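re: ur question from the group chat, yeah i did fold both. here u go
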Amino acid sequence: MSMDISVFHSYGLLISEESASIILSHMLPIWKAEKPELYDRFSEADVFLNFGDYLNSHYDASFYGNADHLSCYRICDHEFSEQETGDYFYFLDLNRSPSLFRPAYTDFREIIQEVKSKIGEILPPDFPFEEYLLEILGETWG
């Protein structure tokens, strides 16, 4: 019997059911007036996977599921994060990650600017970046 083990380590924006709800709360009134097809598509009760697929196709967010072990650390202070990812989540990877010899970014504001350049048009002005910009380490066994 063989077992496949995959390990991942990424830096980026967590799109969980909670953060998707923050984004949709901001965007649904806008879409209702400007893009009724998106409003209709995402105004139903349980739309997380559908919204995640939209983020994947329009903003290059990656889908993660079935992680057997997952650790998350806030990028802003390197503290362990208590974010609930559920059974699956989406993640918008940053363009750079740190190396042994140099940091990837000079400060946290630079990371926020990168994320805003990718997905800022749908984020609310008061989006809590400190809570959702994470370093994630995970394993899947199968």
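okk and heres the other one u asked abt
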Amino acid sequence: MSEALIVIDMQNGLEDVYQRKQLINNINKRIDQYRSKRKPLVFLQHIDENMPVFSREWSLFDDLHNQATDRYFNKYRPDSFYQTGLESFLKLNKISSIELCGAQTELNIVLTLLSEPLFIWAFKSRF
């Protein structure tokens, strides 16, 4: 079974995230574990009027253990599957299991978990 870690919205524009330092430390541990096993790492970055592309606010936290070789997607909605290319990436790489983490979990991760493409992908990857 191929697994991927998906890190959502760990961006400078969300610096007021609850227990930021501890959250980054916990996510970095997962990133390091996935990287050591050569498993895919995916980072999703939200774009809006407060976080325009290539701005400081849009950029990932400096102390996050992301690398240029990781996979990156931009998103305009809380749902990480909506028009991002994430679903295609998972299919192309035969990913059958994902772990989600990131900022604003009460919105972004919950809506990603409830997205129709995730249900379809999960069903097809199992059967």
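fwiw on the second one: The mean pLDDT is 87. The beta strands are 2-8, 41-46, 71-75, 95-102. idk if thats what u expected
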